[in-house]
Amino acid sequence: MSSNEGVPARILIVDDDAEFRGMLANYLEEQNMQVRSTRGGEDMLRHFAVREPDLVLLDLRLEKEDGLDLLRDIRARSDVPVIVMTGNRRDEIDRVVGLELGADDYVTKPFGLRELLARIRAVLRRQEFGRNASDDELSSGGYRFEGWELDLRARRLVNPAGGAVPLTKGEYALLVAFLAAPGRPLSREHLLQATRVHEDIFDRSIDVQVLRLRRKLEAEPSAPRAIQTERGIGYRFTLSVKQY
User: What is the rounded distance in angstroms from the CA atom of residue 122 to the CA atom of residue 107?
Assistant: First the structure.
């Protein structure tokens, strides 16, 4: 289901194997999902122009295009959830890069259709949680730290120079968790629960989210000042934080 109760989720499959696309589409339609499919980037963007899907299944190993480039195109225009599909277990680098570029999950071919369905439903649930932020959170003002400001009502991060810094839903939720507990070591499990991605299937998703967030907050992400690693525990936000 999509975020609207009773309305089928709209899934876009991007894969250059027509037989594989058809098999996936038939299965997902049997699960009460609306499915469109395409073999490449041009048609993919055309689908986005007509109506943005609720989730994209994106093959990283396209014959004539780089799936990572298509993922960049998607992230340049949308925060729609993306599950990337890789062709074999040796594609670890592509999977990691895909997650860093903003993919929400991955599956490795060949995969079971029930596993794929579980991942799709988990990602859609997380998207819904992020969309329905609580009234308490939206009315609680925001946080300031070393010239930065996070406005919770507008869900907007502003850097010391006054520029808006875009955040994915996962990055936003992670930053809120850190700012709500400055100076405290937070375990990965705590952060998974706080960011509502504890249903995630890949174990080190928090590490990927922290890496993305460091790249936006830190002048030197390899030598972070704000988000520091606590060995054997997780992470700690070390800057002084003021809530308003």
Answer: 13
